[in-house]
Amino acid sequence: MRVAVFFAAAASLGGALAQEVYLGFNSGSTTTDRKVKKQADFEKEFQTAQNLKGSPGSFASVRLYTNIQAPSKDDPIEAFPAAIKTNTKLLLGLWCSGTTNIDNEINALTKAIDQYGSNFTNLIIGVSVGSEDLYRVSESGVRNEAGPGQNAKTIVKFIKDVREALGNTSLRRTPVGHVDTWSAWANKSNKAVIDEVDFVGANMFPYYEDDKGNDFSNATNVFNYALNSTEKAAGTKPVWITETGWPLTGPDWGQAKATSDNAKGYWDAIGCSLFGRKNVWWYALRDSNPDNKAKFGISNELSTTASFNLTCPSGSGAPASINKEDAKGSGSTLFVSAKAILLAIILAIAL
Ligand SMILES: *[C@@H]1O[C@H](CO)[C@@H](O)[C@H](O)[C@H]1NC(C)=O
Ligand SMILES: *[C@@H]1O[C@H](CO)[C@@H](O)[C@H](O)[C@H]1NC(C)=O
Ligand SMILES: *[C@@H]1O[C@H](CO)[C@@H](O)[C@H](O)[C@H]1NC(C)=O
Ligand SMILES: *[C@@H]1O[C@H](CO)[C@@H](O)[C@H](O)[C@H]1NC(C)=O
Ligand SMILES: *[C@@H]1O[C@H](CO)[C@@H](O)[C@H](O)[C@H]1NC(C)=O
Ligand SMILES: *[C@@H]1O[C@H](CO)[C@@H](O)[C@H](O)[C@H]1NC(C)=O
């Protein structure tokens, strides 16, 4: 009896301590030929992500950019039922640029909550209000003709709108944040957004940092600089790595060259140092943006054999197997129970 109580207490303590770390890919709403993805397309993607050969773990999470299924006004995106079917965890995104309100994005989300209930809401890790909106109105965003964005004040307002809309739903305690480039987070003009969010989603691409010495040999330094700058700006707010990767093909960017070897080298050096230790959504399993000449997809044909060997080098420190159980729906039970047993032993000794 006593022992059982100790074990139960330790198990719940262990569960609380063993905070789950998410491993996923980004997924746009179209393919590179601008075709709108349907449920079957998302399902195939999510299944591939969970079954990649040689991968250090199951990529059982996906980050989306919109809640809306095109061409509808505010119907839920078909990635939602695909995620339910494949038990894929969701980092949701509301598209916030080029608009004065995000009512349609919010409607699509609340409709999905009504339609799918806890089958849907149990999968949601967080909600990102916007994606790179602050970058697009920054000096480099304007220089790169990145398109319409939003300023910090508008993003703060939209975040408050989302909090209010979710306040009466089962997502009222879900983390609400924003995704932007590391340089937008490091820009002090955007501090109000950091103050408002529950998490800071950072996009970091050493390939594009042509003013930071971006030869591939310096990629780790540039990445660390970007991550450190973001973490410093974020203060106590958790930093999630929402986009990172290196293109397999595409133009030279400053000193950076897009090659399959560099993409593999980046996976080994950066990916394998992060997987299982920080929340990471890799860019990308499959390319979406037809306007981007750099191609980042590691399996554009959705083969479980990716374009390069995904096995992490020994000594990279990557856990041998991350989330392999998640795909089957049993959570990170192994990890949790190891900690729980350890705690039970400590408690038993203490008593
Ligand atoms: C949730 O999933 C269960 C099991 O698949 C299913 O029976 C139920 O109808 C689903 N609920 C909704 C609201 O879709
Ligand atoms: C910092 O943010 C402000 C406000 O959006 C913007 O005007 C400025 O260009 C940004 N600075 C840089 C270096 O991008
Ligand atoms: C939330 O619920 C309260 C009480 O039921 C109600 O007064 C309020 O209007 C609701 N807010 C929204 C955004 O639905
Ligand atoms: C490497 O990257 C760091 C951080 O961006 C930068 O300070 C340094 O100048 C770069 N080194 C070279 C040789 O380009
Ligand atoms: C980033 O921070 C880590 C740990 O705090 C440190 O080891 C590393 O040297 C820093 N890198 C850069 C480029 O500042
Ligand atoms: C993939 O890389 C790992 C570690 O670097 C190596 O052990 C394995 O043999 C490689 N697999 C293939 C198919 O080349």
From TrEMBL:
- The residue range of the signal peptide is 1-18
GO biological process annotation, one example? cell wall organization
Q: What is its main location?
A: other
Q: Which domain of life is it from?
A: Eukaryota
- Please indicate if the UniProt record lists Hydrolase as a keyword: yes
Q: Which SUPFAM superfamilies does UniProt cross-reference here?
A: (Trans)glycosidases
Q: What Gene Ontology terms describe where this protein resides (cellular component)?
A: cell surface; extracellular region; fungal-type cell wall
Which is an annotated GO molecular function term of this record? glucan endo-1,3-beta-D-glucosidase activity
Q: Which UniProt keywords apply?
A: Hydrolase, Signal
Location within or outside the cell: Cell envelope
Family note: Belongs to the glycosyl hydrolase 17 family.
Q: What is this protein called?
A: Glycoside hydrolase family 17 protein
- In which organism is this protein found? Amniculicola lignicola CBS 123094
